[in-house]
């Protein structure tokens, strides 16, 4: 009988061994993802000064922390509450397992886990959480195997980076920054205790939801540390009484959503793992500038809406009103601020990048710059008279076009400077006619303009352009003849600390002396012309207003000696605003709002434009004017004809 029992025991033992071998053969590769640990990591965005702008991630919000940078007190607290013999056992705690088995037998169910940290890591990353005997056996087998492949330090590192800490935080570094706005080495003992107590039941102990329960759990950790003699009595009492401040906020912490959307779109092709690669991306934006720009756009928006209601409460012309703004450094093209709309929560459509709007008179400075470079001067007389243009449609029907000035008058002869300062349409059309559409069209293409019409409608800015592209064009003036391509990414650093730095793209267009002539004219636009509401006390500003046909678009494009800003307002559905909503009234005040507040925090900024040495001045008709060798003092010209018909 005894022999039979021995044989039966042998058969059972052999069967169990074979079953365990078979079971292990089925799961032996299940811990490879732990051994070759490559977690999803959150990508972070920072402004030019290193201030945090936003996070992006896919499924799991996680910041990685290597073992060497984890404070010893965190490891002590974790081991104390979860697995006191962690550094002594081989992956399983046989004594704890024995106690658990006895308890499970008494209750007739799997109630006591007795899992070591190694087993918890295996369960988290490789197995289901079902309380079944087979799953528990798999957990033990894999834990034993994992301990033979990784060091204790590597297991701790993976555990603290992988497990869930509630509120969408994965990994202890993420939780510390999220709950306490602290780095790990800045945490108090109570804050450490609160964090290491979370993985047991992260949703239940989440301090943003159940603060009292999380404190109770943290105090259990404190008592355990004291019982083990790992903290003294003074630390024990102080920690029990300490109440940490817990922050509750969104995981992305996105302070500039329009900016982040643009950056993600630019990078997603070259960095397909952008949301999981743990990159640190430094942007060119300045968060302070960004916040002021957001306030400025809302300020202008509210003014327009208030006027709309005040004039006629029964007929709104601003049902889909919105705005956009871009601020950049003149000499580099770095975007300091970019706002794609009044409220991102209501519309994520980025009007600074995605919208093509007509610039209206904001395009005139480029036409006049062509003329200056061809030898016209700031004092050259232009013909400001009405003309009727006849043209044939595609149906061979003859039609007439008789453009007008905004003021509905004409002055005969008008100085070049005055024509642009007061945005005279007729003088501009006659200037373009004199230069020749073919010449002007060719020059504007060289400047970088695209899809521009090959007819006189070009003089009124009747073509589509995005705000970012118009910003690029205006750097021709703000950067003294050298055009900069706006860019928003400064550098990208990967998890291996390899950094790619982005540099400016520039194109020579004109000389500093020739573009200074334009800056002097655009300064007068702000001092005494259509852009008077853009003025800023103590700061020289140059700029141009733009208002399109039927007041559909309102622009102000301007710059100081160091930064450039483009502002746009209009209805998303292209419906006209009121006739009083011009670039000077609608967009210019927003420009001024931004610069006044920027000047307060940067009183050291350069206040006045530098005049190149080869620019000289002379008095013409009682007024001081600037000239160059190319745009020299003109001869006096006269015009006799006040009206003529031209066919084209």
- In the CATH hierarchy, the architecture of the largest domain is 3-Layer(aba) Sandwich
Read across the widest sheet, the strand sequence of neighbours is 2-1-5-13-14
Query: What is the quaternary state of this protein?
Result: single chain
Mean pLDDT: 89
What is the domain total for the residues?
Answer: 2
Q: What is the percent of helical residues? A: 40-55%
**Based on DSSP secondary structure assignment, what is the total number of beta strands?**
21
- What is the CATH level 1 assignment of the largest domain? Alpha Beta
N-end to C-end Cα span:
120 Å
Number of helices: 21
> Ranges with pLDDT <50 over ≥5 residues?
108-112, 637-648
Task: From the 3D structure, determine the CATH topology of the largest domain.
Answer: Beta-lactamase
What is the rounded Rg? 35 Å
- Which descriptor suits the 3D outline? elongated
Structural class: alpha+beta
Our estimate of the beta-strand percent is 15-25%
């Amino acid at each position: 009988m005894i022999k039979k029992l021995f044989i039966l025991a042998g058969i059972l033992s052999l069967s169990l061994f074979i079953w365990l071998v078979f079971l292990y053969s089925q799961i032996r590769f299940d811990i490879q993802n732990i051994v070759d640990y490559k977690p999803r990591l959150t990508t972070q965005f920072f402004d030019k000064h290193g201030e945090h702008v936003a996070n992006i991630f896919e499924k799991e919000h996680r910041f990685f922390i290597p073992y060497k940078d984890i404070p010893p007190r965190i490891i002590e607290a974790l081991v104390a509450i979860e697995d006191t013999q962690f550094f002594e056992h081989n992956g399983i705690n046989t004594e704890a397992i024995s106690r658990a088995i006895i308890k499970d037998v008494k209750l007739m169910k799997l109630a006591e886990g007795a899992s070591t940290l190694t087993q918890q890591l295996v369960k988290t990353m490789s197995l289901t959480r079902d309380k079944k005997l087979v799953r528990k056996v798999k957990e033990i087998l894999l834990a034993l195997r994992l301990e033979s492949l990784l060091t204790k330090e590597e297991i701790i590192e993976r555990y603290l980076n992988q497990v869930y800490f509630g509120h969408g935080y994965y990994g202890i570094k993420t939780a510390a920054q999220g709950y306490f706005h602290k780095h790990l080495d800045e945490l108090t003992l109570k804050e450490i205790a609160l964090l290491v107590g979370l993985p047991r039941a992260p949703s239940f102990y989440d301090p943003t939801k159940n603060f009292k329960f999380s404190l109770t759990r943290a105090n259990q950790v404190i008592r355990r540390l004291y019982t083990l003699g790992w903290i003294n009595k003074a630390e024990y009492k102080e920690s029990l009484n300490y109440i940490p401040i817990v922050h509750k906020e969104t995981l992305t912490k996105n302070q500039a959503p329009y900016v982040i959307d643009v950056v993600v779109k630019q990078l997603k092709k070259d960095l397909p793992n952008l949301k999981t690669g743990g990159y640190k991306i430094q942007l060119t934006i300045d968060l302070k500038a960004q916040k002021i720009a957001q306030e400025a756009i809302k300020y202008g928006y509210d003014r327009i809406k208030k006027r709309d209601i005040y004039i006629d409460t029964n007929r709104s012309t601003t049902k889909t009103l919105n705005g956009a703004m871009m601020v950049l450094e003149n000499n580099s093209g770095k975007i300091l601020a970019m706002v794609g709309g009044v409220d991102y929560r209501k519309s994520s459509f980025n009007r600074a990048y995605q919208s093509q709007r007509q610039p209206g008179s904001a395009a005139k400075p480029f036409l006049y710059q062509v003329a200056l470079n061809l030898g016209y001067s700031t004092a050259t007389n232009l013909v400001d008279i009405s003309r009727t243009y006849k043209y044939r449609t595609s149906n061979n029907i003859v039609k007439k076009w008789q453009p007008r000035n905004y003021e509905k008058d004409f002055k005969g002869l008008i100085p070049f400077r005055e024509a642009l300062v007061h945005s005279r349409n007729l003088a501009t059309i006659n200037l373009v006619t004199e230069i020749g559409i073919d010449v002007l069209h060719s020059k504007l293409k060289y400047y970088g303009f695209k899809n521009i019409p090959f007819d006189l409608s070009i003089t009124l800015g009747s073509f589509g352009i995005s705000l970012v592209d118009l910003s690029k064009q205006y750097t021709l003036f703000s950067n003294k003849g050298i055009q900069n391509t706006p860019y928003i990414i400064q550098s990208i650093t990967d998890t291996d600390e390899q950094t790619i730095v982005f540099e400016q793209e520039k194109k020579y267009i004109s000389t500093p002396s020739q573009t200074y002539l334009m800056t002097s004219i655009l300064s007068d636009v702000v001092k005494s012309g259509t852009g008077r509401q853009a003025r800023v006390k103590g700061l020289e500003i140059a700029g141009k207003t733009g208002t399109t046909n039927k007041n559909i678009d309102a622009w102000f494009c301007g710059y100081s000696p160091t930064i450039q800003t483009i502002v746009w307002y209009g209805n998303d559905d292209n419906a006209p605003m009121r006739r009083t909503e011009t670039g000077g009234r609608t967009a210019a005040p927003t420009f001024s709002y931004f610069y006044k507040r920027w000047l307060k925090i940067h009183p050291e900024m350069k206040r006045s434009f530098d005049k190149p040495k080869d620019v000289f001045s002379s008095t013409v008709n009682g007024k001081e004017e600037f000239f160059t060798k190319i745009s020299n003092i003109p001869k006096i010209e006269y015009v006799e004809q006040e009206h003529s018909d031209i066919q084209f």
